[in-house]
Amino acid sequence: MDTATATAIVAEESARFLRALRRTDLERVVPSTPGWSAADLAWHLAEVQWFWGAVVADLLDDVEPLVEPERPTSDRELLATVARRSADLVTALERRDGSEACWSWFEGGGHVGWVARRQAHEAIIHRVDAELVAGAPVSDVAPAVAADGIDELLRDMIATPSWASFHPDGTAVRVDATDTGDSWVLGFGRFTGTSPATGERYDQDVARVLEDAEDVVVGTTISGAAWDLDRWLWGRGPADPLRLGGDASVAFRLRAIAEVE
User: Fold this and answer.
1) Which residues is 192 bridged to in the sheet?
2) To bridge 235 with a disulfide, which of 149, 178, 226, 259 should be the other Cys (CB 3.0-4.6 Å)?
3) Residue-by-residue pLDDT tens, the chain, 261 positions
């Protein structure tokens, strides 16, 4: 996804997000993010877009000096803040070239284009949250955009860092987007290691994309339209439209690893 396309998606999906929340009581619980109210959802997106807007606007390489803004106390000001933060992020992205360097938590990121793509999918998924809490029909996205969302989730969001050790357990799954022809094979295992930045020790179940999967024995497949797959992997859609082949518990193991707020 190029930066201009991603930026346009940020603008469009943020506007849909606001339209949905303006139609609902902000005290309602968001069904796809238990423990969050609609107001919490609104503030989450406002915080995220403020943060990345600041990173891109000044091409920051260090985010420690950033001071998080205070949450508005009224619903009206909260939604107005979301609108401002979305506009600021879009403006920052429009003024920069995708190749320009900036801070990122992801080792494969570190440039404006990565931020634009990440924020496009952030806005899409939280727009789904907003429509769900509002009781509105969930709007579709283009199959190619949904497939890009799957790719970003599987390659970036659940990727293991270079300092980690990956211990495969021999289990693999293939994810097939039937309407775009895209396919991903992932191997399961344990991720262990200590973060050099925080000193935190990790030992957890992971799955990672296998770039050379010709000789991999795949016992489980998950197939369906890209948008159905994208929403299901993010925990925003049901498994009903998908076809699960082989061991269904392996499919849901991937689903548990992939779920991100």
Assistant:
1) 165, 203
2) 259
3) 999 999 999 999 999 999 999 999 999 999 999 899 999 999 999 999 999 999 999 999 999 999 989 999 999 999 999 999 999 999 999 999 999 999 999 999 999 999 999 999 999 999 999 999 999 999 999 999 999 999 999 999 998 888 989 999 999 999 999 999 999 999 999 999 998 888 999 999 999 999 887 788 899 999 999 999 999 999 999 999 999 999 999 999 999 999 865
Please say whether the beta carbons of 224 and 241 come within 8 A: yes
Q: What does the block give as tokens for 171?
A: 């289990």
Phi/psi of residue 161, nearest 5 degrees: -70, 165
Rounded to 5 degrees, φ, ψ at 225 are -60, 145
Q: Is the dihedral of CA 203, 63, 153, 14 positive or negative?
A: positive
- Judged on CB neighbours under 10 Å (0-12, 13-18, 19+), 193 is middle
pTM score: 0.94
